[in-house]
Amino acid sequence: MKGYLINFWKIFVAGFLLMSLIICSSGIVFAAPDAAEILQQEPSVNDFPEENAVIMLDKTITELTEEGKIITEYKARIKVFTRHGRKEYGEIRIPFSSELSNVELNYARTINQDGSVTKPDKEAIRVNTHPLAKGAPMYSDIKIKTISMPALKNDSIIDYSYTRTSKTLMEDSLFSQWYFKTSAPVLTSEYTVKIPAEKELSFKSINGNHEPKFEKKDGKKVYRWHQKDLDKIYNEAGRPSINILSPKLIISTEKDWQVIAEWYGKLIDEKNEPDLEIKNKVEEIVEGLESEEEKIAKIFDFVATKIRYVALEFGLGKVQPYSVNKTFKNKYGDCKDQASLLATMLREAGIDAYLTLIKAGQAKKTYFEGPATLGGFNHAITAVNLENSENFIFLDPTCDVCNWEYLPDQNRGRQVMIIKDRKGIITETPPYKYKENKVKTEMEVEINKKGDIEVTIDMEPDGKWAYVYRSLFQSYDKSEKRKLFQQILSQHISAAKLGDIEHSDPEDNFSPFTLHLTYKKAGYATQTAGMTIFKVPNSLRIPFSQNFSYYTSKEAGKRKYPVLMTPATYNDRIVINIPEDTEVKLPEKKNIENNIAAFSSSYSKEEKKIIITRKFQIKTNMLDVNKSYKQGKQVINVMRSDEEEKIVLD
After folding, report:
1. pTM reported for the whole predicted model
2. Do the Cβ atoms of 75 and 103 come closer than 8 Å?
3. pLDDT in tens, 521-538
4. 10 Å Cβ neighbour count for 628?
5. 515: which strand partners?
6. Ramachandran angles phi, psi of 91, nearest 5°
7. What digits encode the pLDDT tens for the residues 408-419?
8. Pairing between β-strand 69-80 and β-strand 202-206 as defined by DSSP bridges
9. Under a CB-based contact definition with an 8 Å cutoff, are residues 277 and 379 in contact?
10. How do beta strands 597-606 and 590-593 pair?
11. Local confidence band at 317 (pLDDT 50, 70, 90 cut-offs)
């Protein structure tokens, strides 16, 4: 899929690639323990009757050596109970960078209940390109060592260990994270960090308070965290990802974020001196433009739409942008390449602009109050300092369906680090604004005495929904769009027939995006006792109203995790043209509002027309499990009940 919808994918991939390098572990190679002893300690399916598998042991030791290498020793032991458990855990996948690290398998074996031990054949151990790199426009040195575990049955135990030796990205520095919970119960989670005696370790606990045991041993400082009997992260509709919900540790041998800024500033200073070709292009773009805003708009549009996203993630290139001249010449690059080029071109036009590091994505956060770590970032954008503005303006040129004035939601409400003159300016991006993300819908319905309907819909999305719609319509050809909307229509109104699909140019980011749809349905309304009874036909608006009900389907008080939402406003105006000499019975208007959400509706009759207005707002990006979930659910229930109301014609 083209366009901005893949940017969440890009950011997820980029974050994974970075963390696969900086999450490492230990010193002394694990020896395979006795299988009989393991069987004596194993849990029973009776202890976990609802589970597909249990992680008996999740253990890592991370060691930073005096030579500046990171040695990782990892050990895992998993008992599978079901076919699903065998499928989920039967393929061991170990990520590593072929340029910066190597992986050695210490042992891998399947232990069955009769005490038999089966080891994988050589053919069962493979090294492949990481599947994430295959699913996006990306070329990467991230590989996956895959081990297909043999002889798996229900109640088998998967037992394996590997060693990964890596170079550090920042010389003599260790950055890492450790997650205690996952999608299966964990009986023992253990994480150990070893650093040279002259080094200092900073760490921060997230979603809990985890204190290590500390000792000095063999000239090393040793920190050990140990947790037992951890429940799993459950699946719930709309919940944040596991790495946000899990209790975790962030550790680093760097305490001062300015050290990161200085190091990264040196990397980008080497790459951002424009050549004559860029200078000439900037002059061409801004010719005749007077205001800073006009110049920003045109330069942003050039970088966002003419420099396509292609990540070249090799070695230091995972964090260092390529030369702006190379990016400009190739007309492709990833987020840091695009952000760096945009900043350079803006500066060439006389506008202060700087590459900015950010942790993008719903509910994600950089913990600047904690240890300084490259893992605090997964994305790069551009900060602009206008002459008459007190605050920085932030631009994301990876959004090829945005204009410069709208910052995507994934970047909003984040603390970021602007890299200026090899120093870090820590500030915040603008908050979520539910009034900027909106969809305006005008719908006209013709209904006859037989209950047949013909529906005309005109939509104008803005903010996030504008770039969602633009990306959607860039991604499909004419026949695919028709098939998609016919499927959507059929899900809402069986046997309805789609008519026209017309829309504005999805590649024009300077004009509002508009969508025009028509459909009809014979016998839509119910005929009974001389009356015609029907609900207001569906507007086919994305997002669908039932999505909100799905996310809040659990009773208040029974939800375990927050619900991620898109702050937005949805305005609908429906005009229903009815036959002459028709009496009408209309539903009562509805009105509910709180700090989290709001809904209102009104119904009126004017001559041969029924006029309906509806307004629905979600004001926050997350519903917690307590008050805001209950408040949001109340409003959503009222909104959905209004959609089920019947209009009666007599």
Report:
1. 0.89
2. no
3. 999 999 999 899 999 999
4. 20
5. 459, 503
6. -110, 110
7. 999 999 999 999
8. unpaired
9. no
10. antiparallel
11. low
For residue 232, what are its two tokens? Answer: 């799993």
Q: Cα 336 from chain centroid?
A: 18
Q: State the distance between the two ends of the chain, measured CA to CA, in whole angstroms.
A: 49
Residue of 170, 206, 209 whose CA lies nearest to 370 = 206
8 Å CB contact between 254 and 173: yes
Q: Which amino acid is at 240?
A: P
**DSSP string over 549-573:** HHHT-SPTT---S-EE---EEEEEE
Q: What is the DSSP string of 152-210?
A: --TT-EEEEEEEEEEE-SSTT--EEEEE---SS-EEEEEEEEEEETT---EEEEESS--
Q: With beta carbons less than 8 A apart as the criterion, state whether 146 and 93 touch.
A: yes
Residues 6+ apart with CB under 8 A from 563: 236, 237, 238, 239, 551, 552, 622, 623, 629, 632
What is the C-alpha to C-alpha distance for residues 183 and 231, in angstroms, rounded to an integer?
Answer: 9
What is residue 103's DSSP assignment? E
Torsion angles phi and psi, residue 382, rounded to 5: -125, 135
Report helix, strand or coil for 314: coil
pLDDT value of residue 314: 53
Nearest to 339 by CA among 377, 304, 292, 287: 304
Question: Which residues have a Cβ under 8 Å from the Cβ of 407 and sit 6 or more positions away?
Answer: 394, 395, 396, 429, 430
The two structure tokens encoding residue 562 = 């927050």
Locate 104 and state its tokens. 């050695």
Question: What's 372's DSSP letter?
Answer: B
